[in-house]
Design a protein that fits this description.
The complex is a heterodimer of chains A (328) and B (531). With 328 residues, chain A is α+β, with helices and mostly antiparallel strands. Helix content of chain A is 25%, strand content 34%. Chain B is globular. The chains are: A alpha+beta (328), B mainly alpha (531). The interface between A and B is medium-sized, with 24 and 19 residues.
Chain lengths: 328, 531
């Protein structure tokens, strides 16, 4: 077994269970994104893998070697915190070179490596700056450089872009994705933002209530979220309740009661089909997003023709648009 | 274990025992007779009334003078802001005798020491010096709080139709009130326990509780009256500390600093502020320097040269006194760092009740006035086995006691602020637990140690109140005592020497401020006067 293996790991504090039997594998060079709402245990999982949080059950291993009893400083993992925790008493180079110094790298080599990592994160020449003078985005880049510099076998990023504004965040997500791929860096990236997750992930693991609710490549998870909770957390909005006969205003979509997902990207406005009323129109990223109502069911889709609120339109539902979900 | 026992023993022997001695003597025998007789004594009522009203007026004026500056520092960014902050801090750590000298020089220079517009030896001189001293306290406390208030609330008021003054009165001031009240309570405490300033600028006719204790004990040798007054002072000070602490806690309900980029001040705002602060803070200092250089109609360094000569008035030359003070300051600083450092570790890492007792106990010397401290040591430490009257340690020990609260006030918050995640970040990057302590805890606390040391050093260098009580061998005269005697004696040459000595002491304490300010935020808690 190469890379990280988390098997049945549980963590609890004072009688409450924070992580409940987590299984997760990260192959060398793979980027796994943990997606879930705040409080679902994402951060705790990272801290457990880093060795900062004691586990009550399960094993964490790297390349088949059990890491139980290996202290954080001997695991060779990198962890980037959500809020920047740069060392206030060291300049940028002192922060970035910290891990290399701990590893005993000679000064001259270290300076060269620090310079290269700073180039990598787009902060060439920042070495002598005091960390107090950095902007939020710069500080996050320094924190990233600090985590990358020692060449960790696994890099863990705990919502590193969480408190940055949207535009900066989008840019840094792209840069981060390119950087991780270029370095072939194995990474676990934690976020609550599904756009960020899809942009970065080789695989997405959706977490809820201390468990992994679903895992797969972005395309797999998108096409078949499995449960309503996962579907919602990755950004699906068209969840439809079926009655005892599997029917709803759209027709008979199942064999019995339950929830189905109607994929917005498999819906089209057409001349025939199910009649629907346009309840809202929003322009988003160059496309027109339409909210339509069929009875009491509300669906979101992208329109390929001009429509206005109050119009009656026809709705074509592709065969693969309806995806069954387990549970609620 | 050592960390608990050493500070506790130090505090017990050199602080609690002397204070207990005052209370013990004040509530028995002659002391009790005098204490009971105090309310009926007209001279006591005069002294108490004067102590009170001069402190009230000083406090109100200090707040009024400091508010515009606090506004400037809180709401605007401009070139030289850091320098301005540092400069306004200098008066706070200046020795009282130096401040006394500066105002004496000011009155001298502008002919206010006699005639119709005489200020020397009036209450106005005292009040002016108190404002000079304490502006920094208000500037810092209120300024820092103000900075944390979201300006959007004021902007909202403006949009809703309130003019600038209306906005200040009905929106800003009520929000600032907790900080103003906390700062004012501390300034009031400092003004009621002020000693050197009153002695030098008030002259023989202006007496407060502090100077009366001193006059009875040191001049008249009437220890019974002095203890009775000291008990009154002790009770009053404890009451004030309790009130100040209350107000202090309320202040903690502040906002978060706004993310908005602060504005640049207009030329008028900046100019008016600088003019006000320069008049109040810079003018006395500038005149002091000018007077120290003035010889006859010209200027020379003759007064400085004369410091090396012994004058009849003093047992040693002023320069030797300054050397004594520096030596005492080194020892006092070392003592304060060891005792205060250990106590800080107990406060931060100790168990609940031990931690709280230490936190409060070692802060007490800050509340109790220096005069009470010196007087307590005078009457308590004169019997075997604790006969320390001839010990060369007595003065540095007293100075260390005054310095310890400052050391702790810088160290404790810093030790607490070292974020666990900093340690975790270091651990993940490969630092073992001992390495984490060496790389994270030690260097960060190290700066706070430097700041605490600078405070302790400056305080020891200028300590006057406690030292003036302590018995000592004549050749161990300290610089503040020498300065006091030089100032109190007529004659241009002695006066010139006094000014020169005051300038040297000012430069030394200003150097300490430089250390404090260059370590940035670490010193701020202390200058805010947190008790």
């Amino acid at each position: 077994m190469r890379g990280l293996a988390v098997d049945g790991v549980s963590v609890g504090f004072d009688g409450t269970t924070v992580l409940d039997g987590i299984d997760l594998a990260v192959a060398p060079g793979e980027v796994v994104v943990l997606l879930g709402p705040s409080g679902c245990g994402k951060t705790t999982l990272l801290r457990a893998v880093a060795g900062l949080e004691p586990t009550v059950a399960g094993t964490i291993s790297w390349g088949g070697e059990d890491l139980a009893g290996v202290p954080p400083h001997e695991r060779g993992f990198g962890l980037m915190f959500q809020e920047q925790v740069l060392f206030p008493h060291r300049d940028v180079a002192g922060n970035v070179g910290f891990g290399l110094r701990m590893a005993g790298m000679p000064e001259a080599l270290r300076a060269e490596r620090v310079g290269r990592v700073l180039d990598l994160v787009g902060l060439s020449g920042y070495g002598q700056r005091s960390v107090a003078t950095l902007s939020g985005g710069e500080a996050q880049r320094v924190a990233l450089a600090r985590s990358l510099a020692p060449g960790p076998r696994l890099l863990m990023l705990d919502e590193p872009l969480g408190f940055l504004d949207r535009a900066l965040r989008d840019r840094l997500v792209d840069e981060l994705g390119l950087l991780l791929r270029r370095l072939g860096q194995a990474a676990i990236h934690v976020t609550h933002d599904h756009d960020e997750a899809f942009a970065l992930a080789d695989r997405i693991a959706v977490m809820a209530d201390g468990r992994i609710a679903g895992i797969g490549t972005p395309a797999e998870v998108w096409a078949d979220p499995g449960t309503a909770a996962v579907a919602r957390s990755i950004g699906h909005r068209n969840l439809v309740e079926l009655d005892a006969d599997g029917a709803c205003p759209l027709g008979r979509l199942g064999a019995g009661p339950g929830t189905v997902l109607v994929r917005g990207d498999r819906l089209e406005l057409s001349d025939g089909g199910t009649p629907a009323r346009v309840a809202g129109v929003a322009f988003r990223n160059g496309r027109t997003e339409v909210t339509v109502r069929v009875g009491d069911v509300e669906l979101h889709l992208f329109a390929d023709r001009p429509v206005a609120r109050g119009d009656t339109v026809g709705l074509h539902i592709a065969d693969d648009a309806v995806v069954g979900l387990d549970g609620s | 274990m050592v960390a608990v026992v050493l500070p506790a023993a130090f505090l017990g022997v050199f602080f609690l025992y002397p204070v207990a001695a005052i209370v013990g003597r004040g509530l028995t025998g002659d002391g009790l007779d005098r204490l009971v007789g105090l309310p009926a004594s007209a001279s006591f009522r005069n002294v108490a009334w004067f102590t009170l009203w001069q402190a009230v007026v000083s406090t109100v004026l200090t707040v009024l003078v400091a508010l515009p500056g606090a506004h400037l520092l809180a709401r605007y960014r401009f070139r030289g802001r850091a320098v301005l902050r540092a400069l306004t801090t200098v008066p706070f750590v200046l020795p009282t005798v130096v401040v006394g000298s500066a105002f004496a020089a000011l009155f001298d220079r502008f002919g206010l020491d006699d005639g119709t517009f005489r200020l020397q030896h009036t209450v106005w001189a005292i009040i002016a010096a108190h404002v000079f001293f304490n502006v920094a306290v208000v500037l810092r406390t209120v300024g820092a709080f103000w900075e944390g208030l979201d300006p959007a609330v004021e902007e909202q008021a403006r949009v809703l139709g309130a003019g600038p003054w209306r906005t200040f009165w009905s929106v800003t001031l009520p929000r600032l009130w907790p900080a103003v009240a906390a700062a004012a309570s501390i300034v009031f405490l400092f003004c009621t326990t002020s000693f050197g300033v009153i002695l030098i600028l008030g002259g023989p006719t202006r007496a407060t509780l502090e100077t009366e204790i001193w006059r009875h004990a040191v001049w008249r040798g009437d220890l019974a009256s002095a203890t009775a007054l000291a008990v009154v002072q002790l009770v009053a000070v404890v009451a004030m500390v309790v009130v100040a602490n209350r107000l202090q806690r309320r202040r903690a309900i502040g906002g978060r600093p706004s993310a908005r980029r602060p504005q640049r001040p207009t030329k008028r705002l900046l100019g008016a502020n600088l003019a006000l602060l320069a008049t109040v803070l810079l003018l006395p200092v500038a005149v002091l320097v000018e007077r120290s250089l003035a010889v006859g109609d010209g200027y020379s360094l003759r007064h400085y040269g004369a410091l090396a000569d012994r004058v009849n008035l003093l047992p040693v030359s002023a320069l030797v006194a300054l050397r004594n003070s520096l030596l005492f300051a080194v020892v006092a600083t070392a003592l304060a760092l060891v005792v205060g450092g250990l106590a800080s570790l107990v406060v931060v890492h100790g168990r609940g009740s031990v931690s709280r007792v230490f936190d409060l106990g070692l802060m007490l010397p800050l509340g109790v006035s220096a005069v009470t401290l010196g007087f307590g040591m005078l009457i308590a430490l004169d019997d075997p086995p604790l006969d320390l009257r001839t010990s060369r340690w007595l003065v540095p020990v007293a100075h260390a006691l005054v310095g310890i609260p400052f050391v702790m006030r810088t160290l404790v918050p810093t030790l607490r602020s070292i974020d666990d995640r900093l340690r975790e970040a270091a651990a993940v990057l490969g630092a073992s637990p001992t390495r984490v302590f060496r790389e994270i805890d030690l260097p960060i606390a190290g700066r706070a140690v430097a700041v605490g040391a600078a405070f302790a050093f400056a305080i020891s260098l200028g300590e006057f109140g406690a030292t003036s009580f302590l018995p000592r061998q004549p050749d161990r005269l300290t610089a503040p005592l020498a300065l006091f005697r030089l100032l109190g004696t007529p004659g241009d040459l002695l006066r010139g020497q006094a000014m020169a000595l005051a300038v040297l002491m000012m430069l030394l304490t200003a150097a300490c401020v430089l250390v404090i300010e260059s370590r940035g935020r670490f010193g701020s808690g202390v200058v805010r006067g947190d008790l």
